[in-house]
Design a protein that fits this description.
The chain has one domain (2-153). The protein is built from five helices and no strands. The protein has helices spanning 2-35, 44-65, 73-78, 81-112, 125-148. The model is unreliable at 154-166 (pLDDT under 50). The longest helix is centred in the N-terminal third of the chain and has 34 residues, at 2-35. The radius of gyration is 19 Å and the shape is elongated. By secondary structure, it is an all-alpha fold.
Length: 166
Amino acid sequence: MKDIRKYTDKVLNLAIIVLFIIMFGVTTLNVILRYIFNSPLSFSVELGRYTFCAIVYLGSILVMREDGHIGLDIIVDALPEKIGKVVRAISRILVLIYLAIFCTMSVRMVMGNWMNRSSTMHIPMSLVYIFMVIGSAGMFIEELLNLLGVNKNDGNKDISEVGGGL
């Protein structure tokens, strides 16, 4: 399990870094071309938007692993321990149901948009929507592991340590 985790961490981190470099590079290049040469890139806004969305969906997997998404921990922590555990378990089950629905609907979007092309880059929209499938499936797996107690959050990590680095 640890080998799989290390491999997925490296793949996710590398993908996020590459997507960020593309997003930053294209946006910077577009600013230079627009304001200095008065010749902007026609696809830069679209590519920037798509890479940003991909970064968000891939990053959300790592955040889910560390149990770092927004929650009402202060309320649950104030409950007696046994009741708090039950509330956390019910909450995780509800999140799993939501993620299953989200993943299913994302797959439908991918399957239904093979022929639709983006307006500027003319790439299949399914390539854009595939990150929703990857993100929701990854979050589902991580939340299931959280529910089963496999992802033990030691409470000492902050968001900069999520994923373990390259």
